[in-house]
Amino acid sequence: HKLAMIMVDGDSMVPTLQPSDLILIDLREAKAVRRDAIYVVQINGALVVKRVQMRMGGGGGLKVISDNPSYESWSLTDDEAESMRVKIVGRVVWAGKRM
Fold first, then answer.
1. Could you tell me the pTM of the whole model?
2. Rounded distance, CA 87 to CA 13, Å?
3. Per-residue model confidence (pLDDT) at position 14
4. CB 80 within 8 A of CB 33
5. Which of 27, 36, 41, 46 is the most exposed place for a label (fewest CB within 10 A)?
6. Does residue 54 contact residue 36 with C-beta atoms inside 8 Å?
7. Distance (Å, rounded) from C-alpha 75 to C-alpha 1?
C-alpha cells in the first residue's frame, strides 16, 4: 500500500523514460519534494511525471523539468502551486523498459 506502478504516457521525459515504460512510485514521499528527483505530480487533476526541484528564494515553490529538451521547464511559487491544486503523488524509485 506504499507503492504504486503506472505506465508512462508521452515523451516529455525521454531519454530517461520512454512511452510505455513502467514506473514504481514510492507513495510515502507524497507530501512534499524532499530532494531533487523524478516525481509523479497531480496538477489540476492530471498526472504528470517530471523531474522536480525545490526553488530557493522568495516565494519558494517548485521547478518542474522535462528531460526531453523539446519541452520547456517551468516554475511555480507556493501560491501558484496551491491555486493549481498541485499535489506530489510520490517519487519514482524504479523504471522497467520494454525489450
1. 0.90
2. 19
3. 97
4. no
5. 46
6. yes
7. 31
> According to the 3-state scheme, what is the secondary structure of 57-96?
CCCCCEEEECCCCCCCCEEECHHHHHHCCCEEEEEEEEEE
- DSSP letter (8 states) at residue 28: G
Burial degree of 7 (CB within 10 A; 0-12, 13-18, 19+): exposed
Query: Whole-angstrom Cα distance, residue 66 to residue 68?
Result: 5
Q: Which grid cell sits at 97?
A: 523498459
The number of CA neighbours under 13 Å toward the Cβ of 60 is: 7
How high is the mean pLDDT of the chain?
A: 91
Q: CA–CA separation, 25 vs 50, rounded Å? A: 12
Q: H or E segment at 50?
A: strand 46-54
Q: Residue 67 and residue 78: Cα distance in Å, rounded? A: 23
In terms of Cβ atoms closer than 10 Å to its own Cβ (0-12, 13-18, 19+), residue 8 is buried
CA separation for the pair 99, 27 (Å, rounded) = 27
